[in-house]
Amino acid sequence: MIVEDAICSFCGCLCDDINVEVEEGKIKRVRHACRLGSSKILGHERIKAPMIRRGGELCMVSYQEAYDRAAEILLRAQKPLLYGWASTVCEAQKKGILLAEEVGGVLDSTATVCHGPSVIGIEEKGLPGATLGQVKNRADTIVFWGCNPAEAHPRHSLRYSSNVCGRFTPEGRAGRKIVVVDVRETRTSKNADKTVIIQPGTDYEVISALRMLVAGKGDVVPDEVGGVPKAELDGLAKTLLAARFGAVFFGLGITHSRGRYKNIDNALSLVTELNSHTKFVIMPMRGHYNVGGIGQVLAWSSGFPMSVDFTRNAPYFNPGETAACDLLAKADTDAALIIAADAASNFPRAAVEALAKIPVIQIDPYENPTTLISEVVIPSAIAGVEAEGTAYRMDGMALRMRKLVDTSYPSDEEILSHILESVHRLQRGLER
Amino acid sequence: MISGRTLAQGAGCECKMSPDFLKAVSLCHLSKGDYDALGLCEGKNVQLKNEFGQVVLAPKVDAGLRQGMVFIPMGPWANVLVGPDTGGCGTPQFKGIEVEVEATDASVLEIRDLFRGLRRAQT
Ligand code: SF4
After folding, report:
1. Residue ranges of the alpha helices (H) in B1-123?
2. Ligand 1 pocket residue status of A37, Cβ below 6 Å
3. Pairs of residues, one from chain A and one from chain B, whose beta carbons lie less than 8 Å apart
């Protein structure tokens, strides 16, 4: 059987033209997906059964035992952290928020080690955005700033941006100007008309200089900014101004560097300035396929997009205090549930060491370094492959992911519902 | 030092306990100039060190990098060198980190060894 036009559940591109060949309930071949997508959809060795650590070793247990132990850990904790949520569907995220409210915890997503600064910058300034379809059909000038889609979002250029032919962009790549701004040359810069190499940590200054040049105030710009001669920046400003429809895509090169959310804030101001002269849009290159979704679901249910503290009477958001890495650095959390993310691999070492000191519950299809520091491990179905649900593409479009094959593993949503039931049961027991 | 995604890192990141992931991620990309200046050759590794930790990686020449800059594929090896401070915004600084780099004969730690010694880690 061939499942046509399936959605790839790896990156924020959510490519929806994937053909998946299924034989005897197993995925045999994946067509159209890039290397990242096919390796995810084809899958590999799974965690076999739920486990609980006893005497230092993880021992197999029943699902019910694992749910009960997880509930016990979460209820006993003063301030549990419920972290991850990027590689699962919105329906599971919704259940997670309910669980966080119920046990009085902090819910944070992988955005905090990724596009968190973008989320903050966008909250401050607003986002002059567009759909990827609009970019495909209209953009004649595209800037990739601090991102390398050729390796992180391999089909972005072919489906949505630099190389695709659209309604008003029939010539595709030949009709577009592509600019890359980065601290190094990348596979993406090989496809660019112009690459501007800046010194690391100078994004803020370079963006400020461009704002001045675009606004016609070039006289205040020094001869060199961020290692780039003024004449080169002036040329770039002219390219941006000459666009009829321009798009800026930015990545972790700017959110992870000195300045962090201020860089994003400034980039949004540059796009606002450009919009007084021509049409320009801007978009973060979201990494995990549904990291956008957890932002949306959290925002409509709590009013905040990430790092939400449910231990008070009302949801509270103060990144720097309520974000996962901050909680761990200050030993301000005493248990963690890690779902659809691998905190042990992606957090700074000191945060991982702090995580290893508290009880950790892991919900994931695969063994990874987080398993090595977990107390309870609950294997799940792969959302977007073995379980259906909704996901948000990087441009905020909600897409429905189908189930491609059956599985005996419970979905993230089911697991969270069971833990919630165990929590309720324990609470009733405590009341008695 | 900057860290980020590579194709091989991305393809292996759902399969982190495999030898392929180790090969794809425990790398230190550096310019040809720095490679030569450090006296590196086949079989030699590099040790990177800063106030947050130290880690041994396999060197890889990357023509896209200028001298004085190293790139490490994102993941647990790179994160040994990342500090926990978030500057009030929740996000650690994963890029633009100062590190000292030198040649070494020491070998790269396997993923399980990297997490050994943490209290709850398997023995
Ligand atoms: S670009 Fe992203 S969504 Fe598209 S196939 Fe590759 S990994 Fe999947």
Report:
1. 7-12, 19-25, 32-37, 76-79, 111-115
2. yes
3. 190
Interface contact flag, A257 B95, Cβ < 8 Å: yes
A34-38, A44-48, A228-232 — which one is most confidently predicted on average? A228-232
CA of residue A184 to ligand 1 center, whole Å:
24
Pick the last residue of a domain from A256, A284, A312: A284
My answer on whether A270 and A187 are in the same domain is yes
- Please give the Cα distance from B65 to B63 (Å, whole number): 6
Distance CA A136, CA A309 (A): 39
The alpha carbon of A35 and the centre of ligand 1 are apart by a number of angstroms equal to 8
Q: Which residue lies with its CA nearest to atom 5 of ligand 1?
A: A33
CATH architecture of B2-122: Beta Barrel (2.40)
When divided into structural domains, chain A yields a total of 2
A136 CB near ligand 1 (under 6 Å)? no
The answer to whether A165 and A172 have CB atoms below 8 angstroms apart is: yes
**Does the pLDDT at position A327 exceed 90?**
yes
Contact A116 B95 (CB under 8 A): no
Q: Band of the pLDDT at B121, cuts 50, 70, 90?
A: very low
ipTM: 0.93
pLDDT band at A355 (very low <50, low <70, confident <90, very high): very high
Q: So where are chain B's domains?
A: 2-122
pLDDT digits (tens, 9 = 90+) for A381-397: 999 999 999 999 999 99
Q: Is the per-residue pLDDT at A280 higher than 90?
A: yes
Q: How large is the angle between the packed helices A203-214 and A230-242, nearest 10 degrees?
A: 60
